[in-house]
Amino acid sequence: MLFSKYCEYLEELQNESGRLNMIETLNRMLSELELSDIKPAIYLSLGSFGPDYDKLVLGIKDKFLLTALSKLTGIPGSEIKSLYEKYGDVGDLAENLSTKIGVQTRVDDFFSDETVNRELSLSKVYESFSKLAKEGLSNNAKIEIIGDIDSNLSALEKKYYYRALVGKLRLGVKESTWIAALAKYNDEGDKEEIEYAYHMTSDIALVAETAISNGMEGVRALCHVHVGTPIHSMVAQRISSGEELRKWIQGEFAIENKYDGYRIQIHRTSNGIVTLWSRNQESYTNQFPDILEAVEKLFNKSVVLDGEVVAYDYENDKVQNFNILTQRSRKYGIEETVKQVPVRVFLFDILHIDGKDMIKHPYLTRREVLKKVIPENDIMVVSDIFRSSDPEDADLQLLNAKETNQEGIMIKDLSEEAIYEPGKRSFFWLKYKADYSNNLSDTFDLVIMGAKHGKGKRAGVFGTFLMGIYDRVQETYHTFCYLGSGFSEKDLEELTAELNDIRVEEKPADYDSVVVPDAWFFPHIILEVSAAEISDSPVHTVRDSDGKAYALRFPRYTGKRRTDKSVPDGVTTLDEVVEISKHFRIGSN
Ligand code: AMP
């Protein structure tokens, strides 16, 4: 496909009717794509350059592109900067420079649409991103690569090329949109299998390419554990009382600690290559050299293990607070922090062993194998379970957890059907959390949708944040509260710096908000928030199917940034809010 044609599709996805008919538009695009275009087309539409676990990182920021545009056009930097401030988006800037002005030599090529002599293919443009991702490129070399592409692009193409360079396409296209489009293209009945293949491979573009080249047989052949490639983790549904667990689990269940750390997936291939993955399919391999070394030493089989890594005080044999573990997120000085913050992994699942997938086996079978596989050692231990058939035990264990300052408990179905369900918030696992404030029984993982500038002591930074939950049915974010307490000055400075990078000029299409903050952001940053109660609200937009309104009252940032979770899957959902409010709604309606 020509890049110009691809950009026409992107333009269509951006306009009002395109946004409403995304699946139909993507379906049409699929029918026109050559096989070799499928991956570039899908990755770019998601604002990415590769699958989540193996993305190219360009590290290009708006500021650098302003310098590049100044060099390529000959327009002084100060002028470019003020035009950028006017448009507020580097893609709009490049598009407008291209159509509106005409000057100088090289600049002639750059500006005038008529001088475009060669129409570039989507693959050719995509190749330039791989070139730019090479390590150690000088800024001049980068500008050269960008200039080579740029000189052949029309105004519209420039808009999307420059946006893609900074990873800000923001079309609102998600993996789930592609799954729906692929099902429409193939057969609606295939949707579940397509989704499953995506959870097993963590690569929607690979699934699409396979579906189109080899049909559903090819897709089914992808549905196994690929050792070395992260699988989407199974996650738990939440419950708010022991009694509630009977809604989901009829017979015996296991109660485990809910360890307060980072989810970790450990892979060792049959030829000894070890990789560690976060719940977002980001690599932890460099971040946890101590775990890497232990896996290298302890195993000679191919395995995929699932667990939670926590900061651990070995002297007193105690799990440390989550905030201590966050010191291990640093990118630099890793050796130092390994010594300062020792960790332990509590393993609770095994997904693969020596060529055999374990995910379709019931939990007790998986645990038996897990116990056999893990040799005696300090750093990786199998989590303890307590077996019971009495929901009151869940309440008792939760009390215990509260007393020992733990986050809560996990309850796991022990029936034969209770398999490992990749990528699902499964009812085979229930989380039952204790909020230390003792008001609401739970905390919420909310996404920052917007913010207001701080006043007084907080001038110069964002001081209050508009927080949202996610509605999976409507695929929309709804505002749930304004959040201003619980932040340190450092938190606000760090958040402000990061938010400035993901600021968008207009309210994103999938945001449902009545209030208008000073700034809108791309949904990316998730914060854990506790609150005193849920009540109705005249200003926030969370509503259940009966139209009943919900908002958080007296919300407070717990200090826990959920970098281990990603949008939209990691954000508290509308269903969860409705469920929690049944037990804790104290508000006025
Ligand atoms: P939450 O982060 O509140 O959505 O809770 C789910 C998370 O709890 C999982 O993704 C794991 O990272 C974590 N977790 C802690 N302990 C366990 C456990 N014993 N079994 C499963 N997940 C656990």
Work out the number of β strands. Answer: 23
Can you identify the CATH class of the largest domain?
A: Alpha Beta
The CATH homologous superfamily of the largest domain: DNA ligase/mRNA capping enzyme
Apparent shape: globular
Using only C-alpha atoms, the radius of gyration works out to: 25 Å
Distance between the termini: 55 Å
Largest sheet: 8 strands, mixed
Q: How confident overall, as mean pLDDT?
A: 90
Helix content: 25-40%
Strand percent estimate:
15-25%
Annotated CATH topology of the largest domain: D-amino Acid Aminotransferase, Chain A, domain 1
Which residues form runs of ≥5 with pLDDT under 50?
101-108
Q: Which structural class is indicated by helix and strand composition?
A: alpha+beta
Number of helices, where a helix is a run of at least 4 consecutive DSSP H or I residues: 21
In words, what does this structure look like?
Helix 3 packs across helix 12 (175-186). This protein folds into four domains: 3-165, Orthogonal Bundle (DNA ligase i, domain 1); 175-221, no CATH class; 235-436, D-amino Acid Aminotransferase, Chain A, domain 1 (2-Layer Sandwich), CATH 3.30.470.30; 443-583, Nucleic acid-binding proteins (OB fold (Dihydrolipoamide Acetyltransferase, E2P), Beta Barrel). It contains 21 helices and 23 strands. The protein is 38% helix and 21% strand. With 589 residues, it is of the alpha+beta class. Strand 7 and strand 8 (356-357) form a beta hairpin. The strands form four sheets. Strands 13, 14, 15, 16, 17, 18, 19 and 23 form an eight-stranded mixed β-sheet that branches. The structure holds adenosine monophosphate. Adenosine monophosphate is lined by residues 233, 235-236, 256-259, 263, 279, 308, 348, 383, 410, 431.
